Structure formats: C-alpha cells, structure tokens
Amino acid sequence: MDFCYLCCLENEWGEHMKSHIIIHHSLTEDGQTVSWGAIERYHRETMGWEDVGYHAGVELIGGEYYALFGRAEYRFAAACKEGAMNQVGLHVCCVGNYDSIAPTDCMLNVLVRRVLAPWCDRYNIGAENIQGHRDYAHYKTCPGLLFDLNLVRDLVRRIL
To answer: What pTM did the predictor assign?
Structure first.
C-alpha cells in the first residue's frame, strides 16, 4: 500500500480528516426496488470487503429518492484507490446508469440536500472538491457521461 501523508491527517479527536467528496454511479438501471442491498452484498461476498465500499448512496425506492447509509464516514472507503481518495474522500454512489440517461432533478435534489451539502458543512469541504470518480480514475466515466458535476457543485454552493 502506498503511504500518503494526507492519509494520516487527523483532527483533535483522532478522526481521519476528509478533504474531498467523490461521486459514483452504479452503472445499473435504477428501478422501484432496493438495489443498495445488492451493491452491499456484491462488495462483501464477491469483492471480500468488510462493508459496502461507499459512505452513502442515493436510490429511487417506490417512486421516491432516498439517501442511504453506507460504510461509516470515519472508515476509509473502498471505491477509488487513485489519488488516495479512499483515505481522504467521502464517497456516494447514485444508483443508476448516467452514461445513458441524465440524473433527474429529484435525484440531484436528494443528493445535494441530504448528502453533499451536509458533508461539505460538517467537514468544511469546498464545492470545488466535489469530484467524479472519473477525475481520478481516468479509465472510468463514473458518475456517468451525462452527470453534470458543475451543476451539482453550483447547487451545493447555493445551499452553503
């Protein structure tokens, strides 16, 4: 494992400091049923991880979008090894394939109001440090070719 000095920065309570937020997509079609459990099972059973790789998720369930808990925020993610983002980033997965369709306004509203803005406020993360997985893993399109990260950053700035 590569050593990174950023990974060792801690606050006064010994918690690892977070400096970035990384947005992902599941690259699966979102439906009316819960896929978050399937993602967690895949990470645990197939990948052999101790928990789902993301700190949070956003998913359409029964016609409404919900923010879902994932791995504890103080734990390193298992989502983007490039740039030490597993260590310094908070990771959220938006269930859906945003290579083929753009995220809905309702999904973005839940993502911004329930996940991103609270994280930015709690961890003092600027909107400019909200990034896509593709910004670090250049071989990926995540969170999707049709996912407008600049729009998301602007929506967060309006709230903060």
So the answer is: 0.89
Helices then strands, each counted (H, E), the chain: 5, 5
Please give the CATH topology (third level) of the domain spanning 18-159: Lysozyme-like (3.40.80)
- Please report which residue ranges of the chain form alpha helices under DSSP H: 36-41, 85-88, 105-110, 117-123, 149-159
- What is the pLDDT confidence band of residue 31, given thresholds at 50, 70 and 90? low
Closest CA to 83 of 131, 17, 141, 14: 131
Burial of residue 76, with CB atoms counted within 10 A of its CB: 0-12 exposed, 13-18 middle, 19 or more buried = middle
Task: Give the HSE-up count for residue 73: Cα atoms under 13 Å, Cβ half-sphere.
Answer: 20
| CA atoms 24, 29, 31, 33: torsion sign | negative
Q: How far is CA 26 from CA 5, 15, 155, in A?
A: 30, 28, 22
What confidence tier does 29 reach under pLDDT thresholds 50, 70, 90? confident
The candidate with the shortest Cα–Cα distance to 129, out of 28, 18, 31, 11, is 18
When comparing pLDDT for 4 and 144, which is higher? Answer: 144
